[in-house]
Design brief:
It is built from 9 helices and 15 strands. It is globular. By secondary structure, the protein is of the alpha+beta class.
């Protein structure tokens, strides 16, 4: 009888643990709208709410630091950020000593510039600033909405050479050698920051987490029951409607660039925020391009670059990169996927 009781006790203890030795984990979520001008949702499995709250607080702290470092629109006391780098002093950009996290982002941005044949270029800030200013006016006062002139855009485009971004790793400094140049890291910074936070979670031994920062989704391990996370793709023609696809992720990132996300209208026509580096106008041909890959920063950069490439060129780029898959939705709604895309679709 004693032996039977001990056996039942052992069975009960095992049932209260996920694997007869691991405490059972519960699912928790938290939401904010503090950084990168978008919403952040963190979902994870932990043994207690207190532990999840501790992890979430650190995730928020790190995202806040990346947001301030990569901000091109606002200065912060005691921080040399990308706003600082973009400033002129007596008509020249000074050499600015910056946090190593800025150096690492810009080095990666240069790498992605080469990978994408210049379709993702953080040196396009002078052109993107023009579009940003006109879009802001158009959204604030639709009756006054207009387009920047091609003369102004072409003049701004004279100051977009990536080689004029000089990075001194040893001294942790950045210099823009062209006074007319500005950095804009909107096509990579958010995804890069999400990736760094995901890597911190992995280093901490955390698994079973999902980060979603304004649609930049990054899974950190599978769920405790061994199943993958499921992420939905919005319908670009009806973003509030049903998802066009459900994807299963465990250690991957999912990033989408779309013409339906940020835009304004002039004379009834939409002008979105993804500017083609050759035409200097909003890129045409797609409603949305989605990328699945192991790195959220890469996914961010690639989704923008692919949006600015002809389909066959984009498919060739994706095929040349390991563990990268993509889906293109054309302006007529036609879907095209890379060779391995369907393996991520929810069964």
């Amino acid at each position: 009888m004693k032996r039977l009781f001990c056996g039942l006790l052992g069975l009960c203890l095992c049932l209260s643990f996920t694997a007869c030795g691991e405490p059972k984990k519960e699912k928790f979520s938290a939401y904010s709208f503090d950084y990168f001008d978008t919403s952040t949702t963190v979902t994870g499995y932990e043994e207690s709410r207190a532990e999840f709250d501790r992890v979430y607080a650190e995730v928020e702290r790190q995202l806040g630091e990346y947001h301030r470092l990569y901000d091109i629109y606002m200065p912060y006391e005691g921080v040399n950020n990308l706003y600082t780098v973009n400033q002129l002093v007596e008509g020249q950009h000074p050499t600015v000593r910056v946090d190593r996290r800025i150096i690492d982002l810009l080095l990666y941005a240069k790498e992605m510039y080469a990978t994408t044949a210049g379709r993702m270029n953080v040196a396009m800030g002078s052109v993107l600033r023009l579009w940003h200013d006109y879009r802001t006016v158009g959204l604030d006062d639709p009756e006054s909405a207009s387009l920047p002139s091609m003369d102004r855009l072409e003049e701004a485009a004279e100051h977009t050479a990536i080689d004029n971004l000089v990075i001194d790793q040893k001294n942790s400094t950045v210099t823009l050698t062209d006074p007319g140049m500005r950095l804009d890291v909107g096509a990579i910074a958010k995804g890069y920051a999400v990736e760094q936070v995901a890597r911190w979670l992995t280093q901490e031994g955390k698994t079973g987490y999902m980060l979603n920062v304004g649609g930049n989704v990054r899974a950190v391990g599978e769920k405790p029951d061994g199943t993958a996370w499921v992420a939905g793709l919005e319908n670009p023609e009806n973003p509030s409607g049903a998802y066009t696809a459900l994807l299963e992720l465990d250690h991957q990132a999912l990033v989408t660039s779309g013409s339906y996300q940020r835009y304004y209208q002039v004379n009834g026509k939409r002008y979105h925020h993804i500017i083609h580096p050759d035409t200097l106008m909003p890129a045409e041909g797609y409603l949305a391009v989605s990328v699945v890959c192991p790195d959220s920063g890469m996914g961010d950069a690639l989704s923008t670059a692919l949006f600015c490439m002809p389909l066959e060129q984009g498919k060739a780029l994706v095929a040349s990169l390991p563990n990268v898959e993509a889906q293109w939705i054309a302006e007529d709604g036609t879907k095209t996927v890379s060779a391995g895309w369907n393996k991520y679709l929810k069964k």
